[in-house]
Structures are given as structure tokens and as C-alpha cells.
Specification:
Strand order of the largest sheet of chain B: 6-1-2-5-4-3-7
Helix content of chain B: 25-40%
Number of helices of chain B: 9
Strand content of chain B: 25-35%
CATH topology of one domain in chain B: Rossmann fold
Shape of chain B: globular
Number of domains of chain A: 3
CATH superfamily of one domain in chain B: Nucleotide-binding domain of ferredoxin-NADP reductase (FNR) module
Number of strands of chain A: 16
Shape of chain A: globular
Distance between the termini of chain A: 51 Å
Radius of gyration of chain B: 19 Å
CATH superfamily of the largest domain in chain A: FAD/NAD(P)-binding domain
Helix content of chain A: 25-40%
Bound molecules: flavin-adenine dinucleotide, iron/sulfur cluster, FE2/S2 (inorganic) cluster
Distance between the termini of chain B: 31 Å
Oligomer: heterodimer
Radius of gyration of chain A: 23 Å
Strand order of the largest sheet of chain A: 3-2-1-4-16
């Protein structure tokens, strides 16, 4: 299909994303980016050069056919655009909001060499939201059921992707989740103003409509072991249990009242509604000055939630410089606009408490950047004698998460790496245990939503093949 | 209604209630020392409770709850036939039962409930099991008869002397040891000050052992770190590495302090609930008038 000749020189800069005013938005948890209008979306999609050899597709971990969906947006064929996204991305409304596009698709966009790259993420969000608003509830496409049963441990993006893909192929899928709510980090970690709960809910409902069953309050490995799942008649298992083990600081005073892991702080609010205490029963400590330690997405999220919760001062302490902040650029920009103070090139050495054991200050040391380390980033080194106290009444530790060991510890015959992640075949994501696959943060270590989904997709393909090649069941009724 | 069915509910003592709840997977899996986390309703808090006994045949677990604040107060109002919304487990490490020889188990208040399955397992593991069961007062004592059937010897005490010996569990331990009995291992479960005191007395008599800790918990799967405790100068996550730890290594002062983190909010929660109940009652009265 040939398009009309387009004037590609006309828009060197990207269509800005309208955002809620910073001073207003910190009063609540409403989503910050307001989303493109149809007009804005089509104007932005016009900027795509429709390259012969589109780099963006390779830049996307799940290889979305980006030029195609942009063309569909230009032509106003939004449902087609949504279908294009869904062919390789089962959670486009989520990815459009949380993907680090500036390191992926947009980083290699050819338009971006001379001008701003096309705002692929914003357009992905636009299309997914359009679809959600216009989705006619398609009941499950009738596919022939295979009679194969699959159990999935963990309902984060990896588990959800596997579930969706396998259900569409006619398998009988059950997701077991340890918590009382689905979606993993999408539910308990990433806050509402970045990823509205309604979006997560609608994605879950979509997967339920595909026939996937959700069972909550089950810790696989503990409540039921993998072997018992097979005994119960499951034919294959996928493990997507994530990287939910918070690293602490390892400095004196880290157990004082008022020191939280970012997981605890965010869980209290996102999962348990502590911002609405006492209407909800779970409390959270309020603080006049919160110090967040770390520089990733988790740190930005914690800082911005603390700002909204307390309507008070929030600072971020990070040991490298602004350039090395691992968080998405957009999040840093938002955090700054909301008045989060950045104390860069500082590292905590001690948390100091009062006579009641409550935090009253955090002692930090100033850092400077030395030689590049193994990761290629310049290594921060302490400046001797530069310690200082930062008075505060809450400290949120957001210095990373390790693989969650609860399943792997209970399953000794599952081979692990020395980092505690599960070892898998890179082509199939199969583990050392037959019929057991794994993917997402439990395999890669803490990474991203899109990588977890990509791993899920790869595993689902391999699992389907495995399932279809299993010998026919003796007696399908028996299980 | 969905959730976990309460098969039977009854009051055991002042503000202490017993429930048998349908949770078949947990009933078959549970081992002494492990606990569950539950949430009563959609606005509810997640709270940990020890599984006191299981019946794998009927798929039921036994919980014993003391009213301590908002959630436990709401729990106390549940009746046979009611449902608990969420219930997950069995969490934590099971007690590593050894043949310790001459074991002393010490339960204070509602801590006797978590202690009972441990005493049973220890007995089954070939130990001679002695128990000290203490409470503030006679009407707070629970499970003494069950301990009698499980243990080789049971001594009961109350702070006010209304039943058994007058005094603390540590007084009983002291006098027991003074009469020449040598305990080779001890396990204490109860309020933090009691466990701290028990640690001290056990230390004086050279008795190694365990304490089952009760820090504030959220997820119970090692994800949040709310349950951090310091044991032998190392931070441990009690929900996955515990709840039992070397009694002589536990920083009880820190635990006590951390358990008071939300003391103001806890009062507020109870007051808020009472206010809501009052408003409901007023609405009813008005509607009826
Ligand atoms: C605060 C925060 C912000 C983030 N922001 C971004 C972002 O902006 N962009 C981005 O791309 N990435 C972001 N990430 C990272 C991203 O969320 C993760 O990489 C992704 O969620 C991993 O997906 P997963 O499916 O592997 O696991 P998870 O999302 O961690 O889900 C695992 C699920 O498994 C459950 N589980 C664990 N053990 C068991 C068991 N034994 N049995 C049953 N269930 C179990 C857990 O309760 C959980 O629900 C962020 C992470 C955090 C913590
Ligand atoms: C492993 C473990 C096993 C336990 N077993 C039992 C048991 O068998 N029977 C029993 O009656 N109690 C048990 N507890 C204690 C019980 O969990 C608390 O009494 C309960 O959470 C109080 O909640 P509340 O809302 O009624 O009171 P609140 O007013 O909220 O709190 C009263 C006190 O309970 C503690 N507490 C509050 N919230 C939590 C929480 N989320 N997790 C843990 N402690 C909290 C705090 O120290 C607080 O000061 C156990 C605790 C743990 C950690
Ligand atoms: S999924 Fe992520 S990487 Fe792929 S096109 Fe969308 S924003 Fe870019
Ligand atoms: S309760 Fe969350 S880690 Fe232990």
C-alpha cells in the first residue's frame, strides 16, 4: 500500500506530551502524562520516515513492527495499530508508560540522528488507550482446546505474558500468585501516577477473558511444590517469580524506626492503601523530610510517592552523578519538577536515631568519580573526611532488588547461577527441570517490564512446542 | 462469599479466640513453627498468625488469636460460617527438631499457642519435654490441659497468683533449675519482654535455645523487609529466615522498639473503627425511628 507523499521536513521536534501541572499533581496520585489527542498522535506519527531498514524494530526487545503501527496511526486505523502492537506485545498500555524508550526503540530511531526521535512510547500509549476505550469485549476466540494444563508461578509481566500466549493457543492455564492481588511489580511497585490501576486491571481482565484462571495466596515451592503441580496433572510449569528481595544498606542504624526498603514503602501504599489510612487498615509513617537512597526507577517512584503522601520535603541521595542515574530520563524530569531535591555524589554511612529509636538523620559521605569500573561507568570514590549529617525522619532504601529465593530454596533440583537467578536454556527458557520454564527478573536479575514480557513470549513459544510433543495422556479425565 | 471458611469459632479465654479454618493445602503442608498471613476484608491489613494444629483429613487449620488491635478485634467478631478473604501459608521455616534431650519450652500469654505444636513435634522427636506456661492472670491462661497431654511435666504460673505459682515464667525456670534439673535446650514464645527475660535466665543456667519472634510483617515472602530483626549482629528477615532464631543472639530491644513503630496509628485505627460502628448504629436507630 503506497502512501501519499508526505512532507517529512516539517516537524523536527517531537510533539510534547501534555502533563499535569507539577504543583497540582503532587496533591494526588493522578497520572502525570495526560496522553496525546488524536491530532497530536497523527502529527507525531507523521514524523516517522518509514525507513527501509527500520532500526527501531531491532531496538525494541520484542520487535514490535513500529513503522507499521505508526503508519496505521497516521491513517487513523487505530484498531489495526493496536492489533499490530498486540502481535508481539501483550501489555502495550503498560509498556507505552514504563518502557525506557530512550534506551531502546527511540535510541536508534533514524529520525533521531538529526532531530528528535519519533515519540514511539507516547504513540504506543495513545494506541493502547484508544483500544481500551473502544475495545468491544471480544470473548475468547474459539480455539480448539489442547487438554494441556499449565501452572504459572507469579503474576508479573512475565507470567501474564506466558499465560496470555498459551491460553490463546488453547491450553488450560492457571496462574498462582503469592500475594492477594495480581500483576507483581505492576501492582505493588509502580505507583498509580505512572501506571493507573485501571489499566493494570483491564489487562488482567483481558487475560481472564482468554480463559486464564488466577489463584491467589499460593506460594509455589511452599504451599505447593513443583513436583506436586505435576502430580496434580499440570503438564508444564512457568516460573516468573521476579526479583523481589530488597537489598538493604548494610550500615549501622538501618533497622531504626523510619527506615524502609522501597518495596515496603511502595507496598504499603500501592498494594495496601496506606495513603488512605484509617479508611484502609495498613498504616505508613508520615515524615517531614524523607531521604531516598538510590537512583533508579524504584528510587524515583519512592521519592515521588513520599512527596504525595507527606506534602513535605523529599531528597534523593545517590552516589554517582546525574549522568549515571539509572532511572528513566522522564522520571528524573518529573521528580525534579515535583520539587524532589537531588543530593548527588553522596553515599550514606550511617542512620542516626533518637532516644525512641526513630530516625533523626542520615550521615553521608561525599563522593567523586574515579576510574571507569567493569560496567564502564566511572566508579564513585569516597572523599575522606567529607561526612555530613542530613536531618530527616524517614529513609527509604532503593538500592536494588535480588532474585526472590522463596521458590528456588524450596526446589533444590532447580539449577541456579551464582547470583541466585534460575539457569535456563537461552533459546527456550527451559530450566534444568524437565517441563519447567522460567523467565523475567528471576532469570535476568532485576531488569524491565518489556524484557520480562519478551522472556515470557519466548518461553511460551517453547512451551507450546513442548506441550504439543508430549505423548498423549493415558486418561485425560483422571487428572 | 469467597475466601476461607471458618468451620468453628469459640472463645478460649478473655480476649482469646480459637478458630478452625478451611485451608486444605496448608493443612497438609504445615510443620511446627510455621505461620500464615491473612487479610479479613478488602480494606484489611495483612497479619501473621501461627498455625497451632492441622487436620489434613478435613483440610482445616487451627488458629488462636488474641485481641491486640483493630484487625484482631474484627477477627474476634467472626463466627462459624464466616469467611476470611485471604490466607496464605505455610510461611517461615519449620522448627528444626533435634534430639536435644532435656527440653524446656516456655510460653507466655498467647505465645503458648505457637508453642504447642513445637512442643508436640519435639516430643515426637524423642525429647523429654518440660513446659512452663505463664499468663498475667487465670482468665488469660490457655491450653494448659493440652500441654499436660503432650509434655512430660508442666508448670503453670500467673503474675497475680490466681492460678499455679505466683510469679513470672523466669521465676519458675529459676526454681526448677535450682532444684537440680539440667535443661539442655530451651524454646521461648511470648511477649518480647518475656522472651528477653527468658533469654537472660536461660543464659544464666547455660541453656541454649530459640525464641519465636513476632515482628511486624506485610507480605511474608521476603519481599518487603518490614520483618527485619537483628540476630548476632546480622539483619535477618524473620518471615522467611525465621520466625525462630538463636534466643541468645536476638536484639530484643530493637524488636520491641520496631513493634512500636505504628503505636499512634494503631490507636487511631481502633478509634476510627469504633467511630464507624457508632455511626452505623446511629444510622440504624434513625432508620428504625
Ligand atoms: C518500583 C519499581 C519501579 C519500576 N519501574 C520500571 C519501569 O519504569 N520500567 C520498566 O521497564 N521496569 C520497571 N521496573 C522493573 C520491572 O517492574 C520488573 O523488571 C518486572 O516487573 C519483572 O517482571 P516479572 O514478571 O519477572 O516479576 P515481578 O513483576 O516481580 O512479579 C513476580 C510475581 O511473582 C510473585 N511470586 C514470587 N514468588 C512466588 C511464588 N513462589 N509463588 C507464587 N508467586 C510468587 C510475586 O508476588 C510477584 O507478584 C520497576 C521495578 C520496581 C520495583
Ligand atoms: C510469626 C508470627 C506469629 C504470630 N502468631 C500469633 C498467634 O498465633 N496468635 C496471636 O494472637 N498473635 C500472633 N501474632 C501477633 C499478631 O500478628 C498481632 O497481634 C496482630 O498483627 C495485631 O494486629 P491488630 O491490627 O489487631 O493490632 P494492631 O493494633 O495493629 O497492633 C498491635 C501490636 O501487634 C503488632 N502488629 C501490628 N501489625 C502487625 C503485623 N502486620 N504483623 C505482625 N505484628 C503486627 C505490633 O507489635 C503492634 O504494636 C504473631 C505474629 C507473628 C509475627
Ligand atoms: S515496547 Fe518499548 S521498546 Fe518496544 S516499541 Fe514500545 S516503547 Fe519501544
Ligand atoms: S514480611 Fe515482608 S519481608 Fe518479611
Amino acid at each position: 500500500m503506497s502512501e501519499q507523499k508526505r512532507n517529512l521536513k516539517a516537524h523536527p521536534t517531537r510533539t510534547p506530551m501534555p502533563e499535569r501541572d507539577p504543583l497540582e499533581r503532587v496533591k494526588g496520585f493522578d497520572e502525570v502524562p495526560l496522553g496525546y489527542t488524536e491530532e497530536m498522535a497523527r502529527a507525531e506519527a507523521e514524523r516517522c520516515l518509514d525507513c527501509k531498514n527500520p532500526k527501531c524494530v531491532a531496538g525494541c526487545p520484542v520487535n514490535i513492527n513500529i513503522p507499521k503501527f505508526l503508519r496505521e496511526v497516521r491513517e487513523g486505523r487505530y484498531q489495526d495499530a493496536a492489533d499490530t502492537l498486540r502481535t508481539t506485545n501483550s501489555l502495550p498500555a503498560v509498556c507505552g508508560r514504563v518502557c525506557p524508550q530512550e534506551e531502546q526503540c527511540e535510541a536508534v530511531c533514524i529520525e533521531g540522528i538529526k532531530h528528535d526521535p519519533v515519540a514511539i512510547g507516547n504513540l504506543e500509549k495513545f494506541v493502547a488507550d484508544w483500544e481500551r476505550a473502544h475495545r468491544t469485549i471480544t470473548t475468547r476466540e474459539v480455539v480448539e482446546t489442547t487438554g494441556r494444563r499449565i501452572a504459572i508461578a507469579g503474576s508479573g509481566p512475565a507470567g501474564l505474558t506466558v499465560a496470555g500466549d498459551l491460553a490463546k493457543l488453547g491450553h488450560d492455564v492457571t496462574i498462582f500468585e503469592a500475594l492477594h492481588r495480581p500483576a507483581g511489580v505492576l501492582a505493588y511497585g509502580i505507583p498509580e501516577f505512572r501506571l493507573p490501576r485501571a489499566i493494570v486491571k483491564s489487562e488482567i481482565e483481558y487475560i481472564e477473558r482468554l480463559g486464564v484462571k488466577f489463584v491467589y495466596n499460593v506460594v509455589i515451592g511452599v504451599t505447593v511444590t513443583l513436583d506436586e503441580l505435576f502430580e496434580e496433572g499440570y503438564d508444564a510449569v512457568f516460573i516468573g517469580t521476579g526479583a523481589g528481595l530488597p537489598k538493604m544498606l548494610g550500615v549501622p542504624g538501618e533497622n531504626l524506626i523510619g527506615v524502609f526498603s522501597s518495596n515496603e514503602f511502595l507496598t504499603r501504599i500501592n498494594l495496601l492503601g496506606a495513603d488512605r489510612f484509617p479508611e484502609f487498615d495498613t498504616p505508613v509513617l508520615h515524615a517531614k523530610h524523607t531521604v531516598v537512597v538510590g537512583g533508579g526507577n524504584t528510587a524515583m517512584d519512592s521519592a515521588r510517592v513520599a512527596k504525595r503522601l507527606n506534602q513535605a520535603r523529599v531528597s534523593l541521595v545517590y552516589r554517582r552523578s546525574e549522568e549515571e542515574l539509572p532511572a528513566r530520563k522522564e522520571e528524573v524530569h518529573h521528580a525534579k519538577a515535583e520539587g524532589i531535591e537531588f543530593s548527588l555524589l553522596c553515599n550514606p554511612v550511617e542512620v542516626i536515631g533518637d532516644e525512641n529509636g526513630r530516625v533523626k538523620a542520615i550521615r553521608c559521605i561525599r563522593m567523586e568519580l574515579g576510574e571507569p569500573d567493569a560496567s564502564g561507568r566511572r566508579k564513585p570514590v569516597e572523599i575522606k573526611g567529607s561526612e555530613f549529617n542530613l536531618e530527616c525522619d524517614a529513609v527509604i532504601v532503593a538500592v536494588g532488588n535480588a532474585p526472590n529465593p522463596i521458590l528456588t530454596k524450596a526446589t533444590p533440583d532447580l539449577e541456579l547461577t551464582k547470583w541466585g537467578t534460575i539457569k535456563v536454556d537461552p533459546d527456550t527458557n527451559e530450566t534444568s527441570k524437565r517441563g519447567v520454564y522460567a523467565g523475567g527478573d528471576i532469570v535476568s536479575g532485576a531488569a524491565t517490564v518489556i524484557l520480562a514480557m519478551g522472556a515470557g513470549r519466548k518461553a511460551a513459544t517453547a512451551m507450546h512446542e513442548y506441550l504439543m510433543n508430549l505423548p498423549a495422556k493415558q486418561n485425560m479425565q483422571a487428572s | 462469599m469467597s475466601g476461607y471458611l471458618i468451620h468453628s469459632a469459640r472463645q478460649l479465654a478473655d480476649k482469646i479466640y480459637e478458630y478452625w479454618v478451611e485451608a486444605p493445602r496448608i493443612a497438609t503442608k504445615h510443620a511446627a513453627g510455621q505461620f500464615i498471613i491473612l487479610r479479613l476484608h478488602d480494606h484489611g491489613e495483612r497479619i501473621p498468625l501461627t498455625v497451632v494444629e492441622t487436620n489434613p483429613q478435613s483440610g482445616q487449620i487451627r488458629l488462636i488469636v488474641q485481641v491486640a488491635g483493630k484487625t484482631t478485634e474484627e477477627f474476634a467478631q467472626l463466627k462459624t460460617g464466616d469467611f476470611i478473604l485471604d490466607l496464605v501459608g505455610p510461611l517461615g521455616q519449620a522448627t528444626h527438631i533435634h534430639n536435644w534431650g532435656n527440653l524446656i519450652v516456655i510460653g507466655g500469654g498467647v505465645g503458648s499457642a505457637p508453642l504447642l505444636p513445637i512442643a508436640k513435634a519435639a516430643k515426637a522427636g524423642g525429647n523429654k519435654v518440660h513446659a512452663i506456661i505463664g499468663a498475667r492472670s487465670k482468665d488469660l491462661l490457655i491450653l494448659t490441659e493440652e500441654f499436660e497431654t503432650v509434655c512430660d511435666e508442666v508448670r503453670v504460673c500467673t503474675d497475680d497468683g490466681t492460678f499455679g505459682t505466683k510469679g513470672f515464667v523466669t521465676d519458675v525456670l529459676n526454681s526448677w533449675c535450682e532444684t537440680g534439673t539440667r535443661f539442655t535446650y530451651g524454646i521461648a514464645v511470648g511477649p518480647v519482654p518475656m522472651m528477653r527475660a527468658a533469654a537472660k535466665t536461660m543464659g544464666q543456667w547455660g541453656i541454649p535455645g530459640l525464641a519465636s519472634l513476632n515482628p511486624i510483617m506485610l507480605d511474608g515472602t521476603g519481599m518487603c523487609g518490614a520483618c527485619r530483626v537483628t540476630v548476632n549482629n546480622v539483619t535477618r528477615f524473620a518471615c522467611v529466615e525465621g520466625p525462630e532464631f538463636d534466643i541468645h543472639g536476638v536484639d530484643f530491644n530493637e524488636l520491641m522498639m520496631r513493634n512500636r513503630s505504628y503505636i499512634n496509628e494503631e490507636h487511631e485505627a481502633v478509634e476510627h473503627a469504633h467511630q464507624c460502628q457508632l455511626n452505623e448504629m446511629i444510622k440504624h436507630v434513625r432508620a428504625e425511628a
